[in-house]
# Entry
Amino acid sequence: LNSMNMNLQMLGEELQGVPGLEGGEHLEMLRSMQGEIKRIANLIDVFLQYGRPATPNLEVKDLNEVLNATSRFLQADFRQSGVELALDLEPLLPSVELDEGQLRQALLNILGNARQVMQPGGRVRVATRAGMGGEVVIEIAHNGPGIPTDSIEKIFEPFFSKRAGGTGLGLAIARQMVENHGGTI
# Structure
């Protein structure tokens, strides 16, 4: 895919110098093909991420800092969708051992799903707290549509998706990463 993309880029550069072809339909077709290559490459990455999960590289981290950074990363996307992303973080939360990359990916998958089902004016809330057994809890809730009863048992199954164009791997990957940390979702 990378070679195809590079060849298309070189072809585009060559076409720009041809009289009568500048800014024409040919360049738009090239851009479209490059966009499809990028989409396919992303899809392959998702499949590989699920098929070959990495062992977490655990480090002691402040979970609230990870959630703040993830929230900052997502704010523009949520704002553009007209959806509020609110944090309600317990200030005295103990530090935890986690793989920041894996946890962020799990959060991106879950929060991305939440944003996709929300209408403008909706609200997604991310909260942290200490659990009764000393564990750390992340709660994610939104005021959008719920999960249909007939789907609730299937949402973490690989390839199960109710969304057109969905791979059905986002929540399966999130579950895998959370379980790699000894957690539950």
